[in-house]
Amino acid sequence: MKPIRTFAVIPSLPPQLERLSDIARNLRWSWTHDAVALFRRLDDTLWIESGHNPVLMLGRVDQARLEEAVNDEAFMVQLERVARDLDGYLERRDTWFSRLNGPVDAPRIGYFSMEFGLTDCVNIFAGGLGLLAGDHLKSSSDLGVPLVAVGLLYQQGYFRQTLNDAGWQQEFAEENDFHNLPLSLERLPDGAPLIVEAPHPGRTIEAQVWRAQVGRVSLYLLDTNIDSNRPEDRDVTDQLYGGDSEIRLRQEIVLGIGGCRALQALGLAPVVYHMNEGHSAFLSLERVAQLMQTHRLSFAEAREAASAGLIFTTHTPVVAGHDAFPAHLIDRYLSEYVRGLGISRQELLALGRKNPNDEGEPFGMTVLALRMAAYSNGVSKLHGEISRQMWQGLWPGVPEEEVPIGHVTNGVHLRSWVSDELEAHYDRYIGSRWRNEPSTTIAWQQASRIPAEELWRTHERRRERLVVFARRRLQDQYRHRGLSLAEIERAGSALDPEVLTIGFARRFATYKRATLLLRDPERLLRLMTDPHRPVQFIFAGKAHPRDEAGKELIRQIIAFSRQPAVRNRFVFLEDYDMDIARFLVQGCDIWLNNPRRPEEPSGTSGMKAAANGVLNFSTLDGWWAEAWDACSDQPVPVGWAIGRGETYDNWDYQDQVEAEDIYDVLERDIIPTFYERGSERIPRNWIARMQATIENLGPFVSAHRMLRDYVTGFYLPAIERSTALMTNDLAGARSLADWRMRVEEHWSAVRIDTVENNVPREVHVGEPMVARAKVHLGELKPADVVVQMYTGRLNATGEIIDADATPMQLAGKGSNGTYLFESAPTPWRVSGLHGYTVRVLPAHADLHSNYLPGLMTWAGA
């Protein structure tokens, strides 16, 4: 039975406690230990039962308990302190960004993501991508970066996990009750909800807009579950990553196009739009459409203006992981929309295809984003290299190392993940700058001042808490599964708070190789049951509901854990979430990570562990590869590596080699180092590694460092370039578009007729060389191009590597569009076999990159 009217019931708080509501509705409480402690102090049981949701908790707390709190002087003092801290944080104007770039009154960056991992109770994320996005917002808030974010609000969010008696993953959904979450519905002046539209076949789909306040940053979330939509349209934001390819396309239209329109309806006008993965790439088209409509531009002109302010971050190093849709779906959902852009169907499809002329190729969202964005990046140094390799085909003729995809290594929001005890140590020995400054490397060197005894006792308490927590979770799992009372009681003694504890928790995708540790079960068994130096393992993680291979990995872990000899030393915690993650990254001794290189784009769970002084033991993939390399000259290692970065064509052989290495390093180094104790009964060498980890990796793993890299390397340059193109009624964008159309039209005539070849067979180091080339430009002028001498060493196949590209200067003019270019005298710097060639690229003062797809001509080509 449907109601005839709806209304919201809100908590009834005594006037003295009204600030509790303000604190609850700003998600800064999620990274403020004192705020969390305040809610726990009000009702610890209800805090846990509410799923760490202060809004729901305040609606359910007993009125008598509220009156009691009013008369609790200590509680009221803490409430005043937390409220004062929040007010001071929000009112502060002297932020890192304001000191860098001056005060800004309105958001300048729009950040779009399919998922956001902010806190336990706002279930709109699946894993690492969402947690990264959530930490991006939190660090933006701390640093005062003028950013606004856009995502989708899912009715069910990501699935919950249980295991059946066979150890097979079971999924179930839980409804998100938006009115009992720290969210508020955006409304018009007359009180009606703000509604935005996104294109759909023969109609529009509508979405209302909710706001989550993340410190200083607003996150706007679109929700299609409203009465004005058709039933099938109401379900578009039903589940994160649910449904088929068509549902995914519809979600991405709502996110990209609807999200862009939501910012416009809210009166927000970011200069820069950051697409976190390809899901939101349709926003690039909507930006073009808005500029066309507002400034009466052609598609080409608006594209230049829009692209200057577009940033794209790719997270996926495997081609199959990138969203792509068949042409017929793009036709069905965007044919009307495309007509408004003034381009043909073929022109639209070409934007999403590696080969624009391949009618059989699907429309790729990553390809669209790479073609439209002026700035693109991977999420670690190694991932940047892999991305350039993957997408080199979009820039024909451009050497792999010059493909315009950079990298910004991911980071984690430290205050969301560091334990409160360790946070106190950081404040005392490092100083408060670690909280709000992204460049505190010198300050982090003070980590070595944390007394070894204090650091170790703190860590031991965290391991004890982890064991208690794991026992409780295991008992709950066993009750749910209907196991015997004896089994439930036995789970209460699982694990040992004094034993070396190794954690493995992440998504159960096959490339992450969760069962690599089980390659030699007898050897593993000996390690775990050693009477003097035992080892214990805690596993957690979910497999995608359609990933049968990933579920099989979980089943194998469960099967091994049920052996009587190891069931107290090898456990799996169901329903991996942020709560479990915090206990693990704070309480384990070792963080195990063994993905198959190079398939881990970055990985951030090990970063969270490192921020807590937990030592990483990982293959050299993702962030760990560059962190390991950067710390290779340190006197005390920051952890352990599995292998040395080798890759093998035979995956089974690679698994065997690296499993053997895991066992060897455990036996030879990790276990002895942990159990080697002096007269004080503390492991001095182990603690030295913890201190080295905090000192060397603390600033590197911080999302504050990541935001600094985005701000200085991407956001500010994009703001400057976009602003320049938008001034004087977009004169710069119009001019650039005209130039680009002219260059593309006439580029086929560009050729290098001759290159003067007077270099002797042998030259000495330091001896200069001058290159000369006759270049035919046809209708183009020398100002339209840059001619470069391209020199470097030769590899075994005769290819130039480690190249230098040196501009050549115009030295004369021939006939019929031919010009002479000459290089400055260039000395050879190192010995060996070298080579050189000459190339021509387009050049314009307003170009971010000279590498325009298909516009590069090489000598001899």
Q: How does this structure look, described?
A:
The protein folds into four domains: 15-19 and 35-91, no CATH class; 96-407, Rossmann fold; 430-701, Glycogen Phosphorylase B (Rossmann fold, 3-Layer(aba) Sandwich); 750-858, Sandwich (Immunoglobulin-like). The chain contains 30 helices and 30 strands. The termini are far apart. It is globular, with a radius of gyration of 29 Å. Strands 1, 2, 5, 6, 7, 8, 9, 10, 13 and 14 form a ten-stranded mixed β-sheet that branches. The protein has a six-stranded parallel β-sheet with strand order 17-16-15-18-19-20, sandwiched between helices. By secondary structure, the chain is α/β, with parallel strands linked by helices.
User: What is the CA-CA span between the terminal residues?
Assistant: 73 Å
Number of strands: 30
What would the CATH topology of the largest domain be? Answer: Rossmann fold
Structural class per helix/strand content?
alpha/beta
Reading off the top of the CATH hierarchy, the class of the largest domain is best stated as Alpha Beta
CATH architecture of the largest domain: 3-Layer(aba) Sandwich
> pLDDT under 50 segments (min length 5)?
none
- Number of helical segments with 4 or more residues: 30
Major sheet description: 10 strands, mixed
Gyration radius, to the nearest Å?
Answer: 29 Å
The global form is globular
Tell me, rounded to a whole number, the average pLDDT: 94
Helix content: 40-55%
The fraction of residues assigned to DSSP E strands is 15-25%
Instruction: Say which CATH homologous superfamily of the largest domain is assigned.
Output: Glycogen Phosphorylase B
Q: How many domains would you count in the coordinates?
A: 4
